[in-house]
Structures are given as C-alpha cells and as structure tokens.
Amino acid sequence: MDKEGRKTINQGQEDEMEIYGYNLSRWKLAIVSVGVVCTGGFLLLLLYWLPEWRVKATCIRAAIKDCEVVLLRTTDEFKRWFCAKIRFLSLETHPFSSPKSIVNKVSNGHAVHLTENLPEENRHEMSRYSQTQSQQIRYFTHHSVRYFWDDTLHNFDFLKGLDEGVSCTSIYEKHSAGLTKGMHAYRKLLYGVNEISVKVPSAFKLLIKEQYIMLHDMVAAHSTVRVSVCRVNEEAEEIFSTDLVPGDVMIIPLNGIVMPCDAVLINGTCIVNESMLTGESVPVTKTNLPNPSVDLKGTGDELYSPEIHRRHTLFCGTTVIQTRFYTGEFVKAIVVRTGYSTSKGQLVRSILYPKPTDFKLYRDAYLFLLCLVAVAGVGFIYTIINNILNEVEVRAIIVESLDIITITVPPALPAALTAGIVYAQRRLKKVGIFCISPQRINICGQLNLVCFDKTGTLTEDGLDLWGIRRVENTRFLLPEENICNEMLVKSQFVACMATCHSLTKIEGVLSGDPLDLKMFEAIGWILEEATEEETALHNRIMPTVVRPPKQLLPESAPAGNQEMELFELPAIYEIGIVRQFPFSSALQRMSVVARVLGDRKMDAYVKGAPEVIASLCKPETVPADFESVLEDYTKQGFRVIALAHRKLEAKLTWHKIQNIARDAIENNMDFMGLIIMQNKLKQETPAVLENLHKANIRTVMVTGDNMLTAVSVARDCGMILPQDKVIIAEALPPRDGKVAKINWHYADSLPQCSNSSAIDSEDIPMKLVHDCLEDPQVTRFHFAMNGKSFAVILEHFQELVPKLMLHGTVFARMAPDQKTQLVEALQNVDYFVGMCGDGANDCGALKKAHGGISLSELEASVASPFTSKTPSISCVPNLIREGRAALMTSFCVFKFMALYSIIQYFSVTLLYSILSNLGDFQFLFIDLAIILVVVFTMSLNPAWKELVAQRPPSGLISGALLFSVLSQIIISIGFQSLGFFWVKEQSWYEIWRPQSDACNTTRSLHWNSSDLYNETEIDSRNIQNYENTTVFFISSFQYLIVAIAFSKGKPFRQPCYKNYFFVVSMIILYVFILFIMLHPVAFIDEVLQIVCIPYQWRVTLLIIVLVNALVSIIVEESVDWWAKCCLSWALNCREKMPKAKYMYLAQELLVDPEWPPKPQTTTEAKALAKGNGSCQITIT
Questions:
Q1: H or E stretch at 896
Q2: What sequence ranges are listed for the domain P5B-type ATPase N-terminal (predicted)?
Q3: Handedness of CA 998, 1003, 1009, 1012 (dihedral sign)
Q4: Which of 89, 250, 564, 704 could make a disulfide contact with 137, Cβ separation 3.0–4.6 Å?
Q5: Across the strands, what pairs with 702?
C-alpha cells in the first residue's frame, strides 16, 4: 500500500514533493462534523491551518492512481504540507473530431511528445492519460500548476511545453507550420487559458493587500490582447492571447506588442525591452533561432532551451518595440510556454507562494507561544481545581477555564507584529525603496555582509573612452586619445568599433548598451537601418549599414603608407553588418560578420574580455607584453576591452553566414589592440562603504569585470584599505593527470614575484587578536579570485571554501549563476547576506540573498525582494537601518504582548482565588483602549539616523531579552500581589456589598443606594469588590509602564519621545486612568464596575504605581549590564564558543600558522580525496 500510496513529483527540482493518495471517508467526516459543532467551529479552524490533520481526519489511505485527494509534503528542510482535490477533465465531447485521432496529438506530460504531429505516430499517447473508456484525465492543481496522471510513469506530472526535450531541428521541421484548429482546441483543453491570474483577497482575509494589487495590475497588462497565428494551411487567424497554446505560430506585429507568452523566433528580428523581468532598461536585439538543418556545422541534435537560447526567445511580459522581416514573410515566433509556465508566470508564482523564511525570530516566536500555552495550561488546571473546591457550577467552570486560555495566548499578536512591518514598509517607500516581500524587512536588520555589483552599482553606469592601444606587427603602439580622425577612419580597428555592437535606432534615436554607445560616439560614424519599404523589396534581411561622416574620408588613399591597414574602396565607404552574435555574459564576448561595400570577402570582428579575446587569436599576433600592459591599466581601475579581426573565406556566402555557428567564426583571429574605458566611482560610494565598515558590516565586490580592475576599484572606494594586502587565488583544474591546484599571488607585487624567490617578511599580512570578531578587517588581508578559480575551488577544495569566504573581498569575471553560488557559500558560514545589483545579471543572487536590493527605476520590479527607485547604494544603509528598527519593534511588541498576557493572567488568577473576575467592560477597556492603542503606536518609532556597530539579537531566546521579560514579570506580579493582599489589611476593609460605605460620604451612600437594584444584578458574578478595583487600577498602569519601559530608542530606533502618536496616547491614557482613580465619576464607575474606595487608599495606589514605574524603568535600563554580568558569571567556568560558523572559524585561523598562505605557494588537492576537498600545501 505504501509503495502505491506514496510517490515523488518534481524529482530533483527545487519544488520536489512527496505525494500520498487518500479517499474520503464518510464516517470520519461525520465524526469531524460533530467535533466542529461541539467546539463551536474551533476544530474547523484548526483543520484549515493544518492540511495534514485535515486529510487524515477525514480520509483513508488509497493508491495514488485511484485516489480522490492528494496530500503533498515538500522534501526541503521545512517539510510543509498541502492538499489538493483530484479533478477530471473530459475529452469525449469535443466538436471537431473523435478523441482517437486528434486527441492523440496532445502532449502526455513529456515535452518530446508534443513535437509529434502525425496521427499514426501518436495513437498511444492519450491512453497514457485517460483512465476510462470515456476519455477522462485525472489531475490536480497546486500553486497554479496542473499535474496530470501519466499511466506510463504511474505518477502525476505537470504538462510541459516546447521548452524541454525539443530539438532545434524539430522546432523548424515539425512546428513552424502551425497547428490545425482541432489540435489547437485540444491543447487548449489541457493547457488551459493563457493567463496569469492573481486574485486580490478580500480585506478581511488580507492584512497587506498592496502586494497583491500590484501583482494583479502587473500581470493583467496582456490579458486581452488580440494576436494573429498561422494555421497549417498557411492562413492567418486572429485570436485572443488567452487562447494561445504551445505550438501556435504567432505573428509579431510591426508596431510591437507586450508578449503574452514565451515564444522562440523563427523568422525576422525584434528589438525588445526586457526591463519588466531583468530591471535592465537597455533594449535587447532578438534574432531568429539558427536552423540546424542548414547549419554548416550540423548541430542538429542540440535541444532548445529558453535560457541557453534567450537571445532568440521572446519572454512573456517583455515589450517588443520594433521588428524587421523578410519579403513576404512575417516575423514569426513559436509559442513554447503559456500561463504560469512562462518566465513571468514563474516569477509571479515565486511571489505568491514564497518559501518560508528560516529566521530565528520566527522559530523563537513558536517557542514563545508554546511557553504561553504551558502557562495557560497551569492556569486552566488551577481554575478547574479552585472552582471545584468552591463548588462552583459546571457552566461557570467551563467558561472561566477557557477564559484563562484566551487571556494567556494573545490573539492580537500576529496583527501587532504585522503593524511594525507595515510601518517599516511605508517608511522605506518614502525613501524610494519598494518591497514585495515584507517579511524580509526584519531579516535585513541582521545583515552583516553586503555583496555589491561593480558597474552601475559602485561605479557610474556610463563609461568614458580614455583611449586606445592599437597593435601593429605584434607590438603595442602608443596610447591614442582622438580616434575620430582621417588617419584611423579606414583602419580595421575603427571598423570593429563601428560594427561590433548591438545598437539600433528606435524612432530615429540610437539606442543600446551604454558601452556600445560610448564607443560608437567616439568614432563619430553614422548608423543607418533598412526601412520597412526596403526590407519588403528584398529576399534577404537588409543589413544595418555604418559609414563615417564625409569630412573624415580622405579624397584619395595615401600611397605607400605601410603603417595603416587601408581598404581598397570606391568613392563611397560603407560597411554592412551581415550577422550579429550578441554579447554573452557566459562567453564574455560578442562578434559580428560584416562586409565592406565592394569587397568580395567578409570580415569577422570580435570584442570582449582581453583574456578571452587573446585566447581566440593566433598566438603570433598577440604582443609579448600583452599581460603586463593589460595589468598596468586594470590596476589603475580602467575597464579594458580587446578587439580582434579575421578575413573570412570567399566561399562563405551571405546565406551560409546566416546559419553558421558562432564557434566557426570566433577562432584564428588577429589581435588588433585594446580599448581603455574609464569607469568613475559614484560620488556617494566611498561614504556609504565607510558607514558600513564602521557598523562592522563586511562588503564584498562581485563583478563580471577584470579582476585587477575590480581590485583597483575596491581600493579606490575604501572596500580594501591602503595598508591591506590582497592575495589572488588562481585555481587550476586537473589536467594531464595532475591534480587541481591553487597558486597564491600577492596582487601588489605580481610583477616582482615572478623573478624573486625570497619572501619579505613584511609582505606577509599580520593577524591581529581582536575582541570583536565581527570586524572583517582584523587580519588585514583580502582574497581575490575570478569565476574560473571560484568554480575550481568549489569543486576540488571544499574545505578551503569557508576560509576563503571569511576574507574573500573581490570576485571578478563571475557568471550570473556563480554569483548565486557565492551568496550560498557565504550563507553556509552563517553570514546574513545582502546583495545590491543592477538587476540584469544579478537576479539569482538577489533572490537568494537574505536581503536583495535591485537598483532600478522600475517600482514594480519582481527580480528582487527590494527595489530602489534611485540607482544609488545609499539605499543599502537605509534598508539595514529600517530592518534593525523593524526587528527591534518586533522584539518590543513580543515583550509587551508577553507582559500584557502575564499581567492580565495574574490579575484574573488572583481574582479567581476569591471567586471574582474582571468585568466585561474592564476587559474591553484594557484590550481596546490600552493594548490596541499602545501596540499600534509603539511600533511607529522611526529608525535611528545612523548605523552603529552593534547588531540587534536575531532571536527571542537571548540572555538580555529573557532577563528583561522575567524581571518585569516578577515586578508586575509583586506589585499586583502587594495591592491585592494589602487592601485586605486596611481598617475599612470588608467583603463588599452594595450597601458598603468605605468612602464614608453621603454622596457615595446616595449613589450606592440609588443603584441598589442594578448593583445586586451585577454582583451575582462577584465582579464588584475592593480587590477587583485595586487590581484593575494597578494592572491598568502596569500595561502603560511596561509599554514605556520596552519602547527603547537608541541605538536602533529614534527615542520614544519622538514618536508623537505614542506620547500623546500615553498622556491621554495616563490622565484618564489617574482621573477616574483620584476623582471618581459615577457613570464611569458604573460602566467599569468599580467600587468606591477611600481617598487615602487611592493615594496609596498612586504611590504603589509610581514605585512600580520607577523600579521597572531602572531595571529595564540596566538590563543589558545585568544580563552581561549574569551571563559572564554563568559561563566563567567554560569558554564561550561563538554561535556563528564564521566567528568560530575566525578564532581558529588566528592560531593557524599556515594561514594566510604565503606568497608564491601552491595548494594542491589530494588525488585520492579531491571529492571531499582535502588539500595539502607545498612551497614552489
């Protein structure tokens, strides 16, 4: 039964789940129904929040194949439970044709079967889905994804589109013709409507609805677009975008469109704005997917992937700005994913159904509630025993014993905690920081390390062209600043700058990557694109043409000039860009194929990272001093780009170039030289980083730029101090039977190290024993490495990874997925990691970090939890300050709600001992007038104006916090008990009756006698007595006293006296309670069921309250000192070990003589144990 009743779905993926089958049980349903009625609906609420209990209480186990309900459990560390009802999809009543022919065309949950279109090849497919002769398919929906039963897998699987298991060949051969109407209808039946629906819950169900409204508005943009699709008979049909299914061939209109699905281009070119997904506002050029059937290299078996082929994929939600097309051919794209399966749908799902946040505060919150439940249990038992001994009727026993539970476990706690987060979210919005994951605000208060992207984050987005270094005869020429001149206009170097880019004209304005724009503007050339009329007259795509201004062209080519490469040109000098291979961050380069007007052969131009370009060039064309020249510029902080050129063979025709593979072009190049770009620091960068360092927050640079450039920028911005040493870890993978190894170099002495065998002891950084292990700079050395080294270290040197994370400061040439791996590695040593990037290549890292903030102008970016409207890193300290304030507010609210529960619990317990209780209006006054007002105003304290080195505790279970709560509980109980027992010792005290005249005034006597009937009615519950009045007044003041004591300001929040709403509320409540205590008002006393007490006792109560306030505030102010003393005394017998792994590791490394590695040493992985990262150090 267990084997049949338990399966695993989404195996190996992030959302992997175990699935169990159940059938509804009538007798269990009947028992649960009775239980719901008996508990007044409480059992129903409990089962609603606990899906596992709900299913097991109402169902019995069954085989998954035949079950009616499925129970799902995630396999991650959270082990969350979900349930879903099995539904049936009937296919027998379709109007177009019988299921036996057309239905078989539908995918069975494996994308490869979706590629088949011939009936004879697919007769078996529907049988894998259908369970009966009536052609019904069983499925369930979980987190907006449908899972269908597959008979061959004997398991449920979600329906995939063309994004998995489909080769590029089949994209053209089997899908480019479009779908028949029958096939489209059946696919729509299975895939459903192409929409991303976000329902906005009602105000009663949702405390924070802003996020849902924003998502609803964002995803609704494309819901009613009309689109044209091609059918098998080549006719176009206009349908709603909600009717699109995978396999439809969509025609992209000339005037652009907001993409309603994910689709792969098969004809034409598109200019697309992808800012909605990536936060990057620069338009991207999308070209058609290469057709492997005509590819010269014949890579026909390559599988299509939206991520690998993203330069050919139009993603849902992105805006197509412009299109270019063939004669008689539309710009066409094949739909590969729809609805929640699209890239946009997956992002929306990640927001609607986020993974739980594993934060100590929230774990401790459950422990806190369990403690209160235990206290409630004690009170529950005490109440029952006390009432039985006093022979109280059963009904009263039940009511009072349940009453003590509701008093002890505060129902307003979730709302109180949410209020603090909402206020912090509003304050962040005022400073231009938008949040789509409010729970992350608290976590940001714990950040102790922040990773920064370099370009556009620490430095200006734009680059200034500093100059060029051309190469002639394998030697670098002198630097040249002015490129826009007659001598260079016809050189291959300038031709590369003019053609090797992704610029395009949008409404007549040159647009594209800022780097490409700067380079193109520097040469002063003109870019012309074919008009719609021109593209309609030719069978091939009209090329983009670039040409220099006429004033730069010499009237005749200078003869005998051997120093310049000159083209043999007619009077008109133009270059057409024939084919473009867009920039890839993984390859770190881009290339183009171009042809000079009148030239027989075409030219290939490549630009990119110097190290990458040099590796693609013939060794004899690369200058011998290439590395030293490159290092010279990068150490000064310049951004360096290399250019290369190659003359292509004459046999490569225009048609062949359109289908040639990138690798066939990008090899055997001639190295042409370097372009040196200046990347200036943003004005606010050094000051922000200095503030973070003062607050003991580590800063790390993770960039795609050159390593030495990154190190230079890190020094300039203060990330690495002038006296600090930088150790470069150069890791090499196993090769030719040799194990992987790491070569250690010192960045400041790289050139000298190669010729020196002696090591100067002064070059080895010293380790300082420092009290504060939070300070990342105590050892005064930093590690720097590139992406390739980082990958090798992760694979072969796992034991070194934590040590490198402790002092790794610069990570260069990092691919997007490596940035995510870095964040994970830092989190593995217990850092709370923040990530600040531009949102383009940092999406994975921004999501993975505890606090990811994207510098984008888009308010509703879904790429990261936080988005800054202003592209400045000054948002990082603001976010941390607000996070700390919100975290401290959460602690204050927790402490206050704990004291509120215990104070009221003890008040009621004392009164239960004399068979009394607080009155209904007393409860109402305390809960509404005091607690609700206090909780929602004490959360309004804004953040402190600057970051401090101290961090707030991460959890509720800390010495200081527990000492604070316990001391206040003892104080409150003590003063309540004092008042309760002392009042009985007074000379005027007697068991209160309506005729009692403790006040000894005619007015009081008259009031009591006039309301004799009413008092007798109320007194049946023994509410009115001297003990009740005394306890009510003392406890009312105690709520206000602990509220003030717990409303701490510095160093994380502004002082409470600057929280004007809180101050005004406190004053009003204090004045009101003092007034009714010292000067009784008959109406108020009657409503609150307060009895008249002598004036001397009122003054005594005032003295008790004042002493209580004084003691509470003194103890709370000295709580940090007391907690430190008690903890040091408790731990003096044993050495305190740091809780965080990185702090423990720092202590170990302080006494490690082999760390940090010395210059010119090598660390090798052991051949037999490279899997577990064991290593040995050898001196070379």
A1: helix 875-912
A2: 13-150
A3: negative
A4: 89
A5: 811
Contact 782, 808 (CB under 8 A): yes
Are the beta carbons of 1116 and 1005 closer than 8 angstroms?
no
**pTM of the complete model:** 0.70
Contact between 942 and 1054 under an 8 Å Cβ cutoff? The reply is: yes
3-state secondary structure at position 512:
coil
Give the DSSP letter of residue 315. P
Using alpha carbons, select from 460, 452, 500, 467 the residue that is nearest to residue 605: 500
**What size, in residues, is the chain?**
1180
Q: What's at 608, amino acid-wise?
A: G
CB 272 within 8 A of CB 318: yes
Cα distance between residue 20 and residue 82, in whole Å: 11
Asked if 460 contacts 681 with a C-beta cutoff of 8 angstroms, the reply is: yes
If you write DSSP's letter for every residue of 1068-1113 in order, what string do you get? Answer: HHHHHHHHHHHS--HHHHHHHTPPP--HHHHHHHHHHHHHHHHHHH
- The pLDDT score that the predictor gives to residue 711 is 84
Q: Which of 46-50, 95-99, 537-541, 861-865 has the highest mean pLDDT?
A: 46-50
Q: Which residues of 505-543 are buried (b: 16+ CB within 10 A; e: fewer)?
A: eeeeeebbbebbbebbebbbbebebbeeeebeeeeebbb
* 453 is known as an active-site residue: yes
Q: Of the listed 262, 403, 453, 705, which one is catalytic?
A: 453
How many CB atoms neighbour CB 654 within 10 A? 15
Give the HSE-up count for residue 811: Cα atoms under 13 Å, Cβ half-sphere: 28
* CB neighbours of residue 355 within 10 Å: 13
Structure tokens, 1120: 């940090």
Query: Is-contact 956 1064, C-beta < 8 A?
Result: no
Mean pLDDT, the chain, as a whole number? 77
Residue 241 tokens read as 């975008």
User: pLDDT tens-digit profile of 541-557?
Assistant: 567 888 888 766 665 44
